[in-house]
């Protein structure tokens, strides 16, 4: 096995910047703590960026796509061809994340790790062809060790491109019909949580569909059981190419010193895998929203995550994280541009 880069140390937070930002928040013309979570997140970003006044001008959004062999078990409301069709929609500017990226002035990169649609060649998409999607994990591991490591590296490569572009914030998104099934199976294995607590409708299954999906996951856990304490093998057994790429991206961000804004359920499961693999990455992860998929709440709780938004979203693509960017930018503006009591000649509370 080659060098396990994903286990390399993560960059520590800048404690001096954290302390200075915390002190600044105490001096701004408002009651201490009155901006709640916006204060916390501004201070955290100061520590991550190593500067008193953080900024999020340059945002990088990477969409990782892959197909899933488990779709053969009837776990999705949509046919698999949709994954490839959505890749075209992303780069044509018609998808939700395309609109959001334009509005935010963010860079949008689309990485296809492996879909069932043969010989896709779309301008503006990076096609990596790790395989025609993953294997059906009811018949064996979803991916080989080699495929899994290539997917992790694909996430890391995207982060290195983001850094070269001068990015201040990394958002990963995902596309892959069947990937809520893979993510739910992964989360159940890692959290040792009953399937019924985590499984939901995904892109719109009815009650019978949700029940079938739960049964498929039960069988997968029985087949690959007992490896929850090996997060990497669990990822390769039950995950998807795009989920592995997200794991690699999140770890690379923490190692290279780039703040991450995590999207919905599938991205949060990738964050859970990343934290299990390399716990020091956790401070680099901010969480955009709590989505409608029932498992998302459990995963966020296990990560002690405080998401910024709760809007009943269940789209994926990085869209929920993108929606939280204006809020984060405003948190930075408030932190950086509000007057202190001394500057404004406003009387502070008596000490």
Folded structure, characterized:
This protein has 351 residues and is an alpha/beta fold. The chain has two domains: 52 residues, Orthogonal Bundle (5,6-Dimethylbenzimidazole Phosphoribosyltransferase, Chain: A, domain 1); 270 residues, Nicotinate-nucleotide-dimethylbenzimidazole phosphoribosyltransferase (CobT), large domain (Rossmann fold, 3-Layer(aba) Sandwich), CATH 3.40.50. Helix content is 49%, strand content 9%. The protein is built from 14 helices and six strands.
Blueprint (SSEs and pairs):
Layout: H1 15-27, H2 36-49, E1 59-66, H3 81-92, H4 96-104, E2 107-114, E3 125-127, H5 145-164, E4 169-175, H6 179-191, H7 195-198, H8 207-223, H9 231-238, H10 241-256, E5 259-262, H11 265-277, E6 285-287, H12 294-302, H13 319-337, H14 341-344
Parallel strand pairs: 1-2, 1-4, 2-3, 4-5, 5-6
Helix pairs in contact: 1-2, 2-13, 4-13, 5-10, 6-8, 6-9, 6-11, 10-11, 11-12
State the order of secondary-structure elements, H for helix, E for strand: HHEHHEEHEHHHHHEHEHHH
Helix/strand-derived category reads alpha/beta
Would you identify the CATH H-level superfamily of the largest domain? Nicotinate-nucleotide-dimethylbenzimidazole phosphoribosyltransferase (CobT), large domain
User: Might you state the CATH topology name of the largest domain?
Assistant: Rossmann fold
Tally the beta strands: 6
Radius of gyration: 20 Å
Low-confidence stretches: none
Strand content: 5-15%
């Amino acid at each position: 096995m080659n060098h396990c880069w994903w286990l390399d140390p993560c960059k520590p937070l800048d404690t001096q910047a954290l302390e200075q930002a915390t002190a600044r928040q105490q001096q701004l013309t408002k009651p201490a703590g009155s901006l709640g979570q916006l204060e916390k997140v501004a201070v955290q970003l100061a520590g991550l960026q190593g500067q008193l006044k953080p900024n999020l001008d340059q945002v990088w959004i990477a969409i990782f796509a892959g197909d899933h062999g488990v779709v053969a078990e009837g776990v999705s409301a949509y046919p698999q061809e949709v994954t490839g069709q959505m890749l075209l929609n992303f780069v044509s500017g018609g998808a939700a994340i395309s609109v959001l990226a334009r509005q935010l002035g963010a860079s949008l990169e689309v990485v296809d790790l492996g879909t069932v649609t043969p010989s896709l060649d779309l301008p503006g998409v990076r096609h990596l062809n790790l395989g025609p999607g993953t294997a059906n994990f009811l018949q064996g591991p979803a991916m080989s060790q080699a495929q899994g490591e290539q997917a992790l590296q694909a996430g890391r490569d995207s982060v290195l491109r983001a850094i070269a572009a001068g990015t201040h914030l990394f958002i990963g998104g995902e596309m892959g019909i069947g990937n809520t099934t893979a993510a739910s199976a992964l989360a159940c294995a890692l959290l040792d949580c009953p399937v019924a607590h985590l499984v939901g409708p995904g892109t719109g299954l009815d009650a019978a569909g949700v029940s079938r999906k739960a049964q498929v996951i039960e069988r997968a856990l029985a087949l690959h059981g007992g490896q929850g304490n090996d997060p990497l093998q669990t990822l390769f057994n039950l995950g998807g190419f795009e989920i592995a790429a997200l794991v690699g991206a999140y770890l690379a961000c923490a190692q290279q010193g780039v703040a991450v804004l995590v999207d919905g359920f599938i991205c949060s499961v990738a964050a859970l895998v990343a934290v299990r693999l390399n716990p020091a990455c956790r401070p680099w992860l901010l969480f955009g929203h709590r989505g409608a998929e029932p498992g998302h709440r459990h995963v966020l709780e296990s990560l002690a995550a405080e998401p910024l938004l709760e809007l009943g979203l269940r789209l994926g693509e990085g869209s929920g994280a993108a929606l939280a960017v204006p809020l984060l930018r405003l948190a930075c503006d408030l932190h950086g541009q509000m007057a202190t009591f001394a500057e404004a000649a406003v009387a502070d509370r008596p000490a």
